[in-house]
């Protein structure tokens, strides 16, 4: 139904495990945004969510990064493989 | 006539700084290069470790090497990173020379992220050597790093290395020996919109703060776009003029609503992206499910993760309490033998007593914990060098976030089970200052090994031997540890809601890939810790031991027949009597009061202090005579002093009260004021008193 261009943004915590996404927007305080960007997690980075519900592991540029749920909620991503068949 | 320091390298010992992200293998490289020629201490005013070593060039010339704390960025978030930034910018010239040359170490398997810091450092305009470490891991990940290409693009020496196998060391040494290191040709344009601000602040830094031009430019960039100006003690402040200009620009931008820091980070990553595209060949993603993934699937699993962590913790505690027993006995026997030797060799008198009862007994009583501290650091070192520690913090985050802390507070609290001092020093990696302070405030609740002798003595006094099963004793011991732990979490929760209210921390941390532990590095870390501990025992604790000895020895009375009477009328005895009204409601008399006071040197001194107070023949190997004496002790009206209830109350008091001068000294240094250590004395001891009052009074009312 949805194609990548119109698919809506999700916070990283809601991305399903194993799927990929692209970081579109960072929320939260300035210090947090800067740290996230410096960890290579900035806008237009491809991110793969590895696992996690309350604490989340994801893969960015070959690095594994762990985030708390609250942190993941501040990172808005666009799923790059929208569910084709459900 | 004076040339810049990096030019006249023939005349002056060149100063190198080693800089890199955490987990890039920087320390391994530093150790390999400097061997045992290292000086380890702290940066004045902060408990960030200061490591300086000497390496030798190909021609045998000494070179100073500073191993700076790992950092992701010069925009510092933790005291550790602040020190790295300040040393590089020449803001700590009071204690650390500004380095002439910089060795940047990067993880080849994660070049893009690692190059961010390098990019900031290239701004400084110092000669830089780039070491691309972990080439083996990069290979495994299917990445081909073309170091020749990188060298051409950046214009600086680039060395491929595998520090853990010693590869690349000789090349690095050769590069460091070069008298003429080229300056990087570092081309990247500051976004035009902020360039005038950068120029103005750069000019002011050169004129008013006497900074060299390129350093000034780099610092101007940092000042303008660093969100949070984290300052630590020992960092030289900006001149008023520069600060005023900076405020002006920041204000203007915030009025315009622009966020330049994001733009700048983006501009840097764009430049890095181009560089990486040219210099790194990526083969198609061959390895999907790597070994790290497989291990992570287990150790971060909802159930198995806890099981693994629990298993490791159990092994840690078992080792601390069982493996350490024999070496501790040897140290104990050694100090007793030494004291006996001195007694035999010296004429009787105050000076002999000072040496045996003050110096040897006091310092020996603390040295005895060395084996436990070594075991703790062996475990911590192994867990850190394998990469597991970050996973432990990850698992604990769920639990810690309930009380408003994050997973990074776990390591300091774990260390505090051995001793609060390394625990408090480990808080320096916590980024949020409030979280850090809360962790420092509650860390002393974790039962350290110095409380163990007190618990053991009280449990023995509480439960007559042979009549109670071992399980009861063990259960009582576990109860003490549990109470302390619950206390720590409870107060952390309370502080995060009241005194140090703050947003729940947003935890974001890197999980390094698993690695084979480097036994040599772990051993070196243990040796460092042992050295620091021994230094402390030889200075602060030595002084306190002498003072305590004097307090229990003077004033001398002529008619004191036995040591117990002498102690009773000494300054310590008077102090004990002075505080008796305060502690009597808890069931403690003045003799116990002396034990409590002397515990300020180290809690386990309680045991030796009580044996002096209750006039027990000296026999450190055997607590039986002391137990006998404790059972005989009475109040003036003939009631038994050490009833089971009093023993239990006393244990609870030791769980919660703040009684350690060394810890207070570290907290003072860490927080840079007496306010927090004094607060700790107040709230911890106050809470201990209140809780003990409730326990003792309720217990008495119930007829125990």
Distance between the termini of chain B: 85 Å
Strand order of the largest sheet of chain B: 2-3-4-1-5-6-8
Using the CA coordinates, give the radius of gyration of chain A: 12 Å
Count of domains of chain B: 4
Mean pLDDT of chain A equals 78
Largest sheet of chain B: 7 strands, mixed
How many distinct helices of chain A?
2
Structural class of chain A: alpha+beta
Strand order in the largest sheet of chain A: 1-6-2-3-4-5
**Could you report the average pLDDT of chain B, rounded to the nearest whole number?**
82
CATH class of chain A: Mainly Beta
Low-confidence stretches of chain A: 1-6
For the sheet with most strands of chain A, the description reads: 6 strands, antiparallel
> Which outline of chain A best applies?
globular
Fill in the CATH topology of the largest domain in chain B.
Rossmann fold
Distance between the termini of chain A: 11 Å
Order of helices and strands of chain A: EEHEEEHE
Question: Largest interface, by Cβ-Cβ below 8 angstroms: which chains and how many residues each?
Answer: A-B, 34 and 44 residues
Overview in brief:
The complex is a heterodimer of chains A (86) and B (704). By secondary structure, chain A is an alpha+beta fold. Chain A has helices at residues 30-41, 69-73, and strands at residues 10-11, 20-26, 46-51, 55-60, 63-68, 75-79.
Give a written overview of the molecule.
The complex is a heterodimer of chains A (86) and B (704). Chain A has 86 residues and is of the alpha+beta class. Chain A has one domain (10-79): Roll (SH3 type barrels), CATH 2.30.30.90. Helices cover 20% and strands 37% of the residues of chain A. Chain A contains two helices and six strands; from the N terminus they run ββαβββαβ. A six-stranded antiparallel sheet of chain A has the order 1-6-2-3-4-5. In chain A, a hairpin with a 3-residue loop joins strand 3 (46-51) and strand 4 (55-60). Mean pLDDT of chain A is 78; it is low at 1-6. With 704 residues, chain B is α/β, with parallel strands linked by helices. Chain B has four domains: 15-177, Rossmann fold (3-Layer(aba) Sandwich); 192-259, no CATH class; 304-323 and 369-452 and 493-517, no CATH class; 554-701, no CATH class. Chain B is 59% helix and 7% strand. Chain B contains 30 helices and ten strands. Chain B has helices at residues 26-34, 79-88, 111-122, 135-140, 147-154, 169-177, 192-208, 213-225, 240-256, 260-279, 291-299, 304-323, 325-345, 350-367, 370-386, 388-402, 410-415, 420-425, 433-442, 452-462, 470-497, 519-553, 563-568, 571-583, 590-598, 605-613, 624-632, 644-656, 661-671, 675-701; strands spanning 15-20, 38-42, 49-56, 62-67, 101-107, 128-133, 143-145, 158-160, 280-282, 508-511. In chain B, the strands form two sheets. In chain B, strands 2-3-4-1-5-6-8 form a seven-stranded mixed sheet, with helices on both faces. In chain B, strand 2 and strand 3 (49-56) form a beta hairpin. The longest helix of chain B has 35 residues, at 519-553. Chain B is elongated. Chain B starts with 14 loop residues before the first strand and ends with a helix. Residues 1-10 of chain B have low confidence and may be disordered. The chains are: A alpha+beta (86), B alpha/beta (704). At the A-B interface, helix 1 and strand 5 of A face helix 3, helix 10, helix 11, helix 16 and strand 10 of B. Strand 5 of chain A pairs antiparallel with strand 10 of chain B.
């Amino acid at each position: 139904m949805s194609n990548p261009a119109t698919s809506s943004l999700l916070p990283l915590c809601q991305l399903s495990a194993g799927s990929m996404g692209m970081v579109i927007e960072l929320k939260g305080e300035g210090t947090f945004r800067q740290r996230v960007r410096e960890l290579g997690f900035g806008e237009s980075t491809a991110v793969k969510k590895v696992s996690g519900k309350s604490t989340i592991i994801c893969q960015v540029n070959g690095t594994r990064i762990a985030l708390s749920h609250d942190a993941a909620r501040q990172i808005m991503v666009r799923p790059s493989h929208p569910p084709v068949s459900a | 006539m004076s040339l810049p320091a990096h030019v006249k390298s023939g005349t002056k010992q060149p100063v190198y700084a080693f800089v890199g992200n955490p987990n890039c293998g920087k320390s391994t490289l530093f150790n390999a290069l400097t061997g045992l020629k290292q000086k380890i201490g702290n940066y004045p005013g902060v408990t960030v470790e200061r490591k300086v070593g000497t390496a030798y060039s190909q021609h045998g010339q000494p070179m100073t090497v500073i191993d700076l704390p790992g950092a992701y960025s010069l925009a510092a978030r933790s005291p550790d990173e602040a020190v790295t930034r300040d040393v590089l910018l020449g803001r700590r010239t009071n204690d650390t020379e500004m380095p002439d040359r910089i060795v940047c170490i990067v993880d080849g398997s994660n070049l893009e992220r690692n190059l961010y810091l390098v990019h900031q450092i290239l701004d400084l305009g110092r000669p830089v050597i780039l070491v691309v470490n972990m080439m083996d891991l990069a290979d495994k990940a299917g990445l081909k790093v073309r170091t020749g290409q990188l060298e051409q693009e950046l214009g600086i020496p680039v060395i491929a290395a595998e520090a853990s196998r010693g590869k690349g060391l000789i090349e690095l040494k050769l590069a460091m020996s070069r008298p003429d290191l080229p300056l990087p040709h570092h081309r990247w344009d500051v976004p035009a919109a902020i360039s005038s601000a950068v120029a103005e602040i750069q000019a002011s830094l050169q004129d008013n703060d006497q900074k060299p031009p390129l350093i000034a430019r780099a610092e101007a960039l940092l000042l303008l776009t660093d969100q949070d100006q984290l300052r630590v003690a020992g960092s030289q402040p900006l001149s008023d003029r520069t600060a005023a200009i900076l405020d002006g620009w920041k204000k203007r931008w915030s009025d315009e609503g622009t966020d330049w820091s994001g733009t700048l980070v983006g501009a840097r990553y764009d430049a890095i992206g181009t560089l990486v595209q040219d210099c790194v060949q990526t083969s198609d993603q061959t390895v999907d499910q790597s070994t790290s993934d497989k291990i992570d699937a287990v150790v971060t699993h909802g159930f198995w993760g806890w099981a693994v962590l629990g298993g490791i913790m159990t092994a840690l505690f078992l080792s601390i309490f069982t493996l350490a027993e024999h070496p501790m006995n040897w140290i104990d026997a050694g100090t007793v033998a030494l004291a006996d030797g001195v007694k035999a060799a010296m004429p009787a008198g105050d000076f002999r007593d000072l040496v045996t009862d003050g110096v040897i007994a006091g310092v020996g009583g603390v040295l005895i914990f060395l084996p436990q501290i070594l075991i703790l650091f062996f475990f911590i070192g192994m867990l850190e060098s394998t990469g597991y520690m970050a996973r432990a913090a990850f698992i604990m985050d769920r639990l810690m976030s309930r009380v408003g802390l994050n997973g990074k507070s776990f390591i300091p609290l774990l260390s505090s089970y051995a001793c609060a001092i390394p625990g408090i020093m480990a808080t320096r990696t916590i980024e949020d200052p409030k979280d850090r302070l809360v962790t420092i405030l509650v860390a002393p609740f974790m039962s350290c090994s110095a409380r163990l002798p007190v618990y053991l003595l009280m449990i023995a006094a509480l439960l007559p031997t042979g009549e109670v099963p071992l399980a009861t004793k063990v259960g009582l011991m576990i109860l003490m540890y549990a109470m302390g732990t619950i206390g720590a979490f409870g107060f952390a929760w309370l502080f995060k809601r009241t005194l140090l209210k703050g947003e729940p921390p947003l935890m974001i941390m890197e999980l390094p890939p698993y690695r084979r532990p480097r036994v040599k590095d772990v051993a070196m870390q243990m040796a460092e810790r042992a050295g620091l501990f021994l230094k402390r025992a030889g200075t602060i604790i030595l002084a306190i031991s002498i003072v305590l000895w004097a307090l229990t020895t003077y004033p001398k009375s002529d008619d004191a027949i036995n040591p117990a009477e002498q102690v009773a009328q000494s300054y310590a005895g008077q102090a004990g009597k002075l505080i008796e009204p305060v502690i009597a409601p808890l069931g403690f008399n003045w003799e116990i009061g002396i034990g409590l006071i002397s515990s300020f040197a180290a809690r386990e001194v309680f045991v030796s202090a009580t044996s002096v107070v209750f006039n027990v023949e000296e026999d450190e190997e055997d607590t039986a005579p002391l137990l006998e004496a404790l059972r005989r002790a009475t109040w003036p009206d003939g009631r038994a002093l050490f009833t089971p209830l009093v023993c239990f109350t006393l244990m609870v008091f030791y769980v919660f009260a703040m009684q350690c001068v060394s810890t207070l000294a570290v907290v003072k240094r860490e927080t840079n004021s007496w306010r927090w250590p004094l607060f700790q004395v107040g709230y911890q001891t106050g809470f201990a008193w209140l809780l003990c009052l409730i326990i003792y009074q309720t217990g008495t009312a119930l007829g125990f």
